[in-house]
Structure formats: structure tokens, C-alpha cells
Write a structure and sequence with these properties.
By secondary structure, this protein is of the alpha+beta class. It is built from ten helices and 14 strands. Strands 1, 2, 8, 9, 10 and 11 form a six-stranded antiparallel sheet that branches. Strands 7-6-3-4-5-12 form a six-stranded mixed sheet, with helices on one face. Strands 13-14 form a two-stranded antiparallel ribbon. The protein is globular, with a radius of gyration of 22 Å.
Length: 324
């Protein structure tokens, strides 16, 4: 079934925008995003090894889906700390639209995984934890949720977080791809693309959201651990999202609206205003100067090289130069 957005009076969200939606027939709400130039700018700036860039791109997609759900002016931060080759990922979303990201990694360990053909997101992350922090401003208390990282990817981590911390059935799909573009007479160029979709089960009756407190594991069928039945509407919604292929999330020719129509047209999907994203950092000369002014004279002297102190922002790579 073809979808003509013009006939429906729908303006496509396009790249670098999150599209909130609801499927009332299944009692689910969700968000979908397609990333292009914003992702390309962030990853090109850092020039990380390809597997690290892919992992950071997944984290950017997930943060975009979660951060744009804030109903107030604040900040959402996703951060991993692990013993894996990629020891830390940090993605920071500041409302209404600013995204920044960076990664810390052991170059030798990452290269060893690449050479062994084992540089998967799970292997790069390893053992540790992921923190999701919501900062509502200096007059409000911060909220932080932690999820264990035990050899799983970011999709599974997000599911676990909402299931265990929020008691909210959630399904997440993330995908990252590379596009090769060649203009006549020029060498081909590579660009990054990524996308994601998240749906959550929100029926009016709390009883319909019930989940087992813990995974039943190896408990025999028929025991109490297996007694909670999953709602049919959620089974259907989850099954539909599970059919999404990576190429549907990373192909610029497949708009977010087209994907949502493919998945939910039989049930009816309601679209809400898209929320744009931009590549913005919160660093400034004034902020860094304020930090430096807190150091002692001796510490300032240790930082000074050839009469200058040079500070480089980990997120945007901007260099700030000061005299001692």
C-alpha cells in the first residue's frame, strides 16, 4: 500500500528529527528518529575507529529517543562505564534540541577485536553499567537510573531499564549504517546514517501492564513465575516492531512516516509534531575560564606550556587558549 504524505497533509519530519506517535488501537505510544547530518558531524569530528563510531551512533540514537521525551527544560545524559575496550560512552541531550557525544576507548584492545572479527557492540562494551541521568535544573533534584551491562547491547539495556526501573513494557530497535555517495568525476564519499524506534505499552488499566518481577529463568512451566500472561495488544505491537529491518531505519529514502505506516496502518497511527535535533555543545570560553580560575598557582603552572594553557573540549574538539 503506497503512502502519499502530501495527500494526507503530512509534512515529513526528515532527517535529524524525532517523530512522536501513538497507536491507540494497541495502547502504545512511541518515538521514531532518522539521523543524518547531525550524526555525521559528531562522528567525523572525532574520527574514532569504525566499530567505536557505530557504537556511539547507537547511543546517540537511543539518547535522542529518550531525551526528546522530557517535558521540561533540562538535560538527559546517557553514560556507560565498563571494563570493556570502550570504557566510556557519554551522550548528552539538552532541551529542546542539542546533542553532543564522545567516547573513551583502549585503541589496542579495539584494534585486537577488529583484527579478530569480533568488534561487536557487546564485546566493545563488556562488563559494567549504564547510567541514565535526568537533570531538571539547579533547583530540582537529579534522577539517575542504573542498568547492568553484562555482555548485552544497548537495545537490550534499554528494555531492561524500562522493565525493571519503570515497570513499563518497552521495545527498542536501533540501527546504524554507512552510505557511499559518488558524484561524477569524483571519488566516492562515505556518510553515516542511523535510525531507531521505541514503543511503550500504556493501557489505561494498570493490570494490563503487569509483568513478572524477575525473569522465570529455568523455572518449570506452570510454576508461579510463568503465570502472568502478556497482553495481546502488547504482543502484537512488539511483534510488529520486531519485523523492522536495519535497512528500514538507515535508508534515507524510507521516511519515519513511511515506516510507521508500514507497521501500524491497519491499527491506525497518530503522528505528533516532530522535534528537531542539532549538533550543539554546551562548552564556552567563559565556563572553562571559570574552571581554570579554581586551580592553585602551582596547578596552573603545571598546565602551562610555552606560556599558554590549551584546553580541548572532549565533545566538540574546540580548542581554547589562555595565558597563565
Amino acid at each position: 500500500m503506497a503512502l502519499n504524505l502530501d495527500e494526507l497533509g503530512i509534512t515529513p519530519a526528515g532527517l535529524d528529527a524525532v517523530r512522536p506517535f501513538a497507536v491507540e488501537g494497541l495502547d502504545v505510544r512511541g518515538r521514531a528518529v532518522a539521523l543524518g547530518p547531525v550524526l555525521e558531524q559528531i562522528l567525523d569530528r572525532h574520527e574514532y575507529p569504525e566499530p567505536v563510531s557505530r557504537l556511539l551512533a547507537e547511543a546517540i540514537v537511543l539518547t535522542s529517543l529518550l531525551g526528546t521525551s522530557l517535558k521540561f527544560d533540562g538535560r538527559f545524559t546517557l553514560q556507560t562505564q565498563t571494563q570493556g575496550p570502550v570504557s566510556m560512552l557519554v551522550v548528552d541531550f539538552s532541551s529542546p534540541d542539542a546533542v553532543r557525544a564522545c567516547a573513551s576507548f583502549d585503541e589496542d584492545r579495539v584494534q585486537a577485536l577488529i583484527e579478530a572479527g569480533k568488534a561487536t557492540p557487546e564485546a566493545l562494551l563488556g562488563q559494567g553499567h549504564l547510567a541514565m541521568t535526568i537533570d531538571q535544573g539547579k533547583h530540582m533534584q537529579r534522577y539517575q537510573g542504573l542498568v547492568e551491562l553484562d555482555g548485552v547491547g544497548l537495545e537490550e539495556v534499554a528494555r531492561r531499564y524500562f522493565e525493571r526501573s519503570e515497570q513499563l513494557p518497552t521495545e527498542v530497535r536501533l540501527a546504524v549504517g554507512e552510505l557511499y555517495v559518488r558524484k561524477e568525476g569524483e571519488a566516492h564519499t562515505k556518510t553515516w546514517t542511523a535510525g531507531g524506534i521505541m514503543v511503550q505499552f500504556l493501557p489505561e488499566s494498570p493490570e494490563r501492564m503487569r509483568q513478572a518481577d524477575i525473569d522465570p529463568g529455568d523455572a518449570p512451566e506452570g510454576t508461579q513465575a510463568h503465570e502472568i500472561e502478556v497482553d495481546d495488544a502488547w504482543v502484537e505491537a512488539k511483534a510488529l516492531v520486531d519485523t523492522v529491518k536495519d535497512v528500514e531505519l538507515t535508508d534515507p529514502e524510507v521516511s519515519v512516516e513511511m515506516l510507521l505506516f508500514r507497521l501500524f496502518h491497519e491499527r491506525g497511527v497518530r503522528l505528533y509534531e516532530p522535534q528537531p535535533l542539532s549538533d550543539k555543545c554546551r562548552c564556552s570560553r567563559e565556563k572553562i575560564e571559570g574552571v581554570l580560575s579554581g586551580f592553585s598557582v602551582e596547578e596552573v603552572e603545571e598546565m602551562t606550556v610555552d606560556g599558554k594553557i590549551i584546553v580541548t573540549c572532549e565533545f566538540c574538539s574546540t580548542k581554547y587558549e589562555f595565558d597563565s
